[in-house]
Amino acid sequence: MFISAQINIDGIIICNNEVVPFVKVKLKTLNINAITDLEGSFKLRNVPKGVHSVELFAFGFKPKIIEIKSPSSTLEIILEKDLQDLNEVVVSGTLKEVSKKESTVNIEVFTPSFFKKNPAPSVFESIGSVNGVRPQLNCNICNTGDIHINGLEGPYTMVLIDGMPIVSSLSTVYGLTGIPNSLVERIEIVKGPASTLYGSEAIGGIINVITKKPQNANLFSADIFTTTWLETNTDISLKSNVGDKATVLTGINYFNYDYKRDDNDDGFTDVTLQDRISIFQKWNFKRKDYRLFSVAGRFLYEDRWGGDMNWTPDFRGGDSLYGESIYTTRYELLVNYQLPTKEKLFLSGSFNHHNQNSYYGTTPFMANQFIGFGQLHWDKKIGKHDLIIGAAMRFTQYDDGTPATQTADSLNPQNAPSKSWLPGVFIQDELKFNDKHKLLLGLRYDQNSLHGSIFTPRIGYKWMINPSTIFRINTGTGYRVVNIFTEDHAALTGAREVVISDNIDPEQSYNGNINFNKSIVTKKNKYINIDFTGFYTYFTNRIIADYETDPNFIYYENLSSHAISQGISLNVTAKVIRNLSIQAGATYMDIAIFDDGDKKQQLLTEKFSGTWGITYDFPKSNFSIDYTGNVYSPMKLPLLNTSNNLDNPDPRASMSPWWSIQNIQFTYKGFKSWEIYGGVKNLLNWTPNKNTPFIIARSKDPFDKDVQFDGDGIAMVTSDNPNGLTFDPSYVYAPNQGVKGFLGIRYTLHENKIK
Questions:
Q1: What is the pTM of this model?
Q2: Most CB contacts within 10 A, which of 95, 299, 432, 470?
Q3: Domains of the chain with CATH codes
Q4: pLDDT at 18 over 80
């Protein structure tokens, strides 16, 4: 055949509005092929004019064949992820990149496409779509909260950004807000012990927010949405090159809600008003032999307040109108650097400064915290041994002006900021016997400057029964150094007085979990994945906040007996009907405290929870629909006055009802580079006030000016106070926000460097 002319064909390959590198592009009938670069671009050279079949192959994506006609303008080809693939790259379990299937530690991976099914202005809210993970509101007024993993409260969860412990202690509430969603590549969640690698706070598990590599990001993207409650969220990311050696990715998140609303008629705002901006920038430098060098920083400022509907900043700190007002300023810096040596040595560090200027009514909380972290680890393979050996150092300086950072002299207390050093060393050996059996051994030793020596061993085992069936077991110990005032919001709000036991020791625990994962694939490419986990944690000296002994006090002390956290979890992912995909999960757990032989359920902890996400793509159109939701069983709630006035107890229910938040979203992707989405959140219009006479106790008298107390400081029953209550906003387990609509738009500009 005579070929009159040959041309080049340029193209770019994307998936979920992100470029896909390392895709093999091949002309089916000719020996012409190419591989996409880091920007997802390719060039097919010397292609004869005419119609050709092009095959596309990429690890983790469904193969695709398309017909093209040359000459052709630049092609934009969309690939679809392969749900059958279990080989996503993960790093959180062992500090190194491995496929999910090969990891001895079970790691759940969630990409932005998962969270886009129910868009939210922060990772804190989005994470509630994950089975066994629940954002817990800790205050009806300022709406601060934490993340529960398998029922364990927020302080037991370590939050990482790119593997760095940037979020801890004072910043736990704010660490997952303000991270621009457009910069998130994936979120890895480890449920269970991780103290050997990550130290304190990793008893319940870790949440590792992996940001995008600048060289892989889109040139520009924007995601803007608003709601019928007049909330507005803006996410913007921009990539640029600085010379030939550096690529920088900048992300900006801005959230604003400035509309007072009181649907439950208690005189207080239902939702905290917020004005928040976060700026994140990440630099990646090109080095010889592709060695790692990245620097990232984030700045966050937030002004949030909630309280009396008539409150203004003029009333801040006064006793005329009640408000909880928090000004937060936060700086973060993260560095990852691979040393220029033959051996694989990695140096990483993070620094953060957190300043919080806040008033809870008349109670000031002026806190400053600085955390510096540095770590050096060596990645070495010797025969069948895959070793990680490292040393770490963490310095924490904390001052909040409360009794937590004062001298013990009760007559003349002086401010004494807390300073602690936490050096540690660790070793991990992953021994691969053969393709089916792998053993993980780890040991960490930390020397806390305040609490002494702490050992945390770890053992893990993985058995790949066959390529589609995996069994894992992991066990170890954990510890946690506690700062009450940064972790328990109830210590600051309301009228209760805090009593701290002398010499509170670090918490210690013994942990174990088993995991079974099974994939079923039919000849017709239908797919089901079943993931089952059982977990157990035993605490020897857990620190408990006692709300029930006296309604005027919160007592903090180490538990004299023990506590347990145990349960089972099931996740199912299925695609058995064309264009329909289903993700569902359920967790049953028992979180209990044993004291003097009595078993008590942990406050604000459900026995059962479930989540689901159902997506249907309409054939031959660009519409899709997502139906997402969660459901929670009853949980024990903190009441006032449960024993002092038995004839007139707190009339609020001691247990929450079953409750569920359900959402629906419609998305249209028919425009090039654009998406339009909208829907309804909380379809059932469920709010907690529907099951109780009131939520905030004595909201009409937040400073207890009209409460009469007896000689023991107990609130008395009067005609104005028939239940003998004091002001208390800690009776909270779910958001007060009812049904709302939302509408948003996304724009993505891909980079194509082919000339």
A1: 0.86
A2: 470
A3: 6-78 (2.60.40.4130), 210-749 (2.40.170.20)
A4: no
